[in-house]
Design goal:
Layout lengths: L9 H13 L1 H16 L3 H4 L9 H7 L5 H12 L14 E5 L8 E5 L1 H21 L6 E4 L7 E2 L5 E4 H6 L2 H9 L8 H4 L4 H14 L4 E8 L1 H23 L9 H8 L6 H12 L7 H5 L5 E5 L8 H8 L4 E3 L2 E3 L2 E5 L12 E3 L5 E6 L11 E2 L8 E7 L7 E13 L2 E9 L3 E2 L6 E2 H12 L8 E10 L6 E9 L4 H14 L3 H8 L7 E5 L3 H11 L18 H9 L1 E6 L4
Parallel strand pairs: 1-5, 3-6, 6-7, 7-8, 20-21
Antiparallel strand pairs: 1-2, 4-5, 9-10, 10-11, 11-16, 12-13, 12-14, 14-15, 15-16, 17-18, 19-20, 21-22
Helix pairs in contact: 1-6, 10-11, 11-13, 16-17, 19-20
The protein binds adenosine monophosphate.
Adenosine monophosphate binds next to strand 9, strand 15 and strand 16.
Length: 572
C-alpha cells in the first residue's frame, strides 16, 4: 500500500511550474550561472576564457556552437577513464548511448545525477497536469519498458541507453510510486536479458493485474503498438498460461521464470474471460480497454517519428484518450506536455526554464553560414528553430539536431511543437525533403485507394545514387493483399506528394529519376529492430530510421534483401 504522504502534491507542482514559467528569463540566467559555476573547473570551459563570468552575453561570446562530432574527443577521454574534470566539474561516471538510429551507430553522451533530477522533474510536472485532467487511482501501470544491460567502458564507466540509466537509478522507483505509476511487471521482466521474453511477460502481467491497470505506457509509443501487434500473435498462448498457471516454455531465463511463477496461479475463469473478450473483437478494434477496463489513458511520446503509429494506436485504444509524453533526449530534457487532452498531432511542449539553458537558431535565415541563435524568451510564435542545449551534464551550446516550431507562450516560456530531425533529409541535388515531408507523402499515398484495406505497417527511405540521375526509394511493409495497380498508383502518389520546389522542378526535367516504391516482406522492420537491439540499443528508445544513408550498410542490406515487389513512378 502506498501511504498518502508519499504521493505528489499536484497543486503545488503546478504552482511551482507557473511561477517558474512566469519568470523564464531570470530563471534562464540563474540556470546558466548555476551550470557554469558547478562546472567552471572543467577543462573545456577553462580553455574558452570565460574567467569565471556566468552571464549569457559572455557565454555566447566565448563558447562556440558545437555538434556531437566536435565533442567526441572529449567524451572519448571520459569514456576511456580519464578522471580529470573534462566537461563537468564532478567526474562523469555513467555514459548514455543515444539511440543513434539516424547515424547507424549509437553515440555516447554523459549522464549524471543532475540529469536524473531533471528527468524526474519533467516526469513530475507532466504528471501533475495529466492527473488534474485524468486522475488515476491507486493501482498499477502496464509499462512496456525494457532496460538493456549496462556495460562497462574500457575506462570503467557504466554505459547504457539513457532509458536504461534512468530505469536503473535508485530514485526511479520511488518517483513512480509517488505518481501511482508503479509498473505491474517485476524488475526481472523490466531488466530481463531478452526483450522478446520481457514483452511476453509484460503482457502476461498486464492481464493478471487487468482490474488494477490505470494506464498503458511506454517511452516511445512505437513500443505500445509493437506490444499489441505481438499480442495478436500470442494471445491464445497467454490465455493458456493464465488458465493453467504455467508459464510457456518460450520463456527460458530462470530469473524471469521464477519472478513470473510468483504471480502466475491457475485461473481458468480469467483465461476464459480474456479468450472470450478477444474472440468478440472486430479486427482487434478497442483491444486495450477491453483487456484493461479501468485504464484511463494511453501514454507515451507520440509526436515526431511516432506519428505514423497513431492510426494503429487509436485502433487498439478504441475510445481511450491518447496522451503524448514529454520532449527530451539522451542529451537532456526540454519540455513538458502540460495540455494532455490535446490530440497527439497537436501536442506541444512547454520548455522548463530551470532544466538547462536553451538557445534557438532561426531557420528562416541562412543557418549554415552564419547561425544567429536567440534566447528562450526571444523566440517568435509561428517560426521554426533548431534547438541548442546547454546542460548540467557537460554539453555547452550543443546542436541537438531537432527542428521545433514555436506555437505560443505559456506565461513567458515558449510552447514548442516538434517538427523533425534536421539531418534526416532526402536530397539529391537542389531538392530537400525532411522526415516530416516523407511522413506526409506516405500518409497521402496510403490513402490512395480507401476501399483497398492497405495498411502501411512501417516505412523507410533511401537515396539511390546508383542510377543516373539518382532517385528516391521508399520502402513499405504492408498488411493485407494489395494489387499491383493500387501499389503503382501509391508509387505515383508518393512521387507527387514531395512538393518541395527543388524536387518538383528536378523531376520535371529528369534531374532526379522516377521515385521507386519497394515493398518488403512481412517482418522486415522487426529484423531492423532486432538488428539495433543487437547493437545495444534499447527497445524503449527505438525509432525506425526513416532515411537510411549509404553508411548504414547493414540496415540497407536488410531492406534490400527483403524486397518482394518494386514499382517505378510514372507521375512525371
Ligand atoms: P534519443 O537519441 O533516443 O535520446 O532520442 C532523442 C530524440 O528523440 C530527440 O532528439 C527527438 O528527435 C526525439 N524525441 C524525443 N522526444 C520527442 C517528442 N516528444 N516528440 C518527438 N520527438 C521526440
Amino acid at each position: 500500500m502506498i501511504e498518502k504522504m508519499e504521493l505528489l502534491d499536484v497543486d503545488e507542482l503546478i504552482e511551482e511550474f507557473e511561477s517558474m514559467t512566469k519568470n523564464a528569463e531570470n530563471v534562464q540566467r540563474d540556470t546558466l550561472k548555476k551550470i557554469l559555476e558547478e562546472n567552471g573547473s572543467a577543462e573545456y570551459l577553462q580553455n574558452l576564457g570565460l574567467n569565471g563570468r556566468t552571464d549569457p552575453e559572455s557565454f555566447k561570446a566565448c563558447v562556440p556552437l558545437v555538434t556531437h562530432n566536435d565533442l567526441e574527443p572529449y567524451i572519448q577521454r571520459i569514456v576511456d577513464g580519464s578522471s580529470s574534470p573534462i566537461l563537468t566539474g564532478k567526474p562523469i561516471t555513467t555514459i548514455s548511448l543515444s539511440s543513434g538510429t539516424t547515424q547507424g551507430k549509437p553515440k555516447f553522451v554523459p549522464f549524471n545525477e543532475e540529469l536524473m533530477e531533471t528527468t524526474l522533474q519533467i516526469y513530475r510536472t507532466s504528471f501533475a497536469f495529466r492527473n488534474r485532467e485524468f486522475p488515476i487511482e491507486n493501482g498499477k501501470a502496464l509499462q512496456f519498458i525494457y532496460s538493456s544491460k549496462q556495460s562497462q567502458t574500457k575506462g570503467g564507466l557504466i554505459a547504457g541507453t539513457a532509458t536504461t540509466n534512468v530505469f536503473r537509478n535508485s530514485q526511479f522507483k520511488n518517483a513512480m510510486n509517488a505518481m501511482q505509476s508503479q509498473c505491474c511487471s517485476p524488475d526481472e521482466v523490466i531488466f530481463g536479458p531478452d526483450f522478446h521474453q520481457s514483452l511476453y511477460c509484460h503482457l502476461l502481467c498486464g492481464l493478471i493485474f487487468r482490474e488494477e491497470i490505470q494506464f498503458v505506457s511506454s517511452t516511445f509509443s512505437h513500443s505500445i503498438v509493437h506490444a499489441f501487434r505481438t499480442f495478436e500473435q500470442v494471445w491464445e498462448e497467454l490465455c493458456a498460461d493464465i488458465r493453467e498457471g504455467v508459464l510457456t516454455s518460450r520463456i527460458t531465463y530462470p530469473s524471469v521464470r521464477s519472478a513470473m511463477a510468483k504471480l502466475l496461479k491457475p485461473n481458468p475463469e480469467l483465461g476464459d474471460l480474456i479468450h472470450e473478450k478477444c474472440s468478440g473483437l472486430n479486427n482487434w478494434y478497442g483491444l486495450i480497454p477491453e483487456l484493461f477496463p479501468k485504464a484511463k489513458y494511453i501514454y507515451g511520446i507520440m509526436t515526431g517519428s511516432m506519428e505514423p503509429y497513431l492510426k494503429k494506436l487509436r485502433h487498439y485504444a478504441g475510445g481511450l484518450p491518447l496522451l503524448s509524453a514529454d520532449y527530451g533526449s539522451s542529451e537532456g530534457w526540454i519540455g513538458a506536455n502540460v495540455n494532455p487532452s490535446v490530440p497527439p498531432e497537436l501536442a506541444t511542449y512547454v520548455v522548463l526554464p530551470n532544466i538547462g539553458y536553451f538557445e534557438f537558431i532561426p531557420l528562416k535565415e541562412n543557418v549554415e553560414e552564419y547561425p544567429k541563435p536567440v534566447g528562450l524568451t526571444e523566440v517568435k510564435v509561428g517560426e521554426e528553430y533548431e534547438i541548442i542545449i546547454t546542460s548540467f551534464a557537460g554539453l555547452y551550446r550543443y546542436r541537438l539536431g531537432d527542428v521545433v516550431k514555436v506555437t505560443s507562450f505559456h506565461n513567458s516560456s515558449p510552447e514548442l511543437k516538434f517538427v523533425c530531425r534536421r539531418n534526416l533529409m532526402l536530397t539529391i541535388n537542389i531538392d530537400k525533403n525532411t522526415e516530416k515531408d516523407l511522413q506526409l507523402a506516405v500518409e497521402a499515398a496510403s490513402q490512395v485507394n480507401a476501399e483497398e484495406k492497405l495498411e502501411v505497417l512501417d516505412f523507410s527511405s533511401h537515396v539511390d545514387l546508383s542510377t543516373d540521375p539518382g532517385h528516391y526509394v521508399i520502402f513499405w511493409e504492408i498488411n493485407g493483399e494489395v494489387g499491383d495497380e493500387v501499389l503503382k498508383e501509391c508509387c505515383n502518389c508518393l512521387d507527387r506528394s514531395f512538393v518541395d520546389a527543388g524536387y518538383v522542378s528536378s523531376r520535371k526535367v529528369n534531374a532526379i529519376s522516377p521515385l521507386e516504391l519497394r515493398v518488403v516482406r512481412k517482418g522486415t522492420f522487426q529484423n531492423i529492430l532486432d538488428h539495433y537491439v543487437g547493437l545495444g540499443a534499447a527497445l524503449s528508445q527505438f525509432k525506425t530510421p526513416r532515411c537510411v544513408g549509404p553508411r548504414n550498410r547493414e540496415v540497407l542490406q536488410i531492406l534490400c534483401d527483403n524486397v518482394v515487389k518494386s514499382y517505378l513512378s510514372t507521375a512525371f
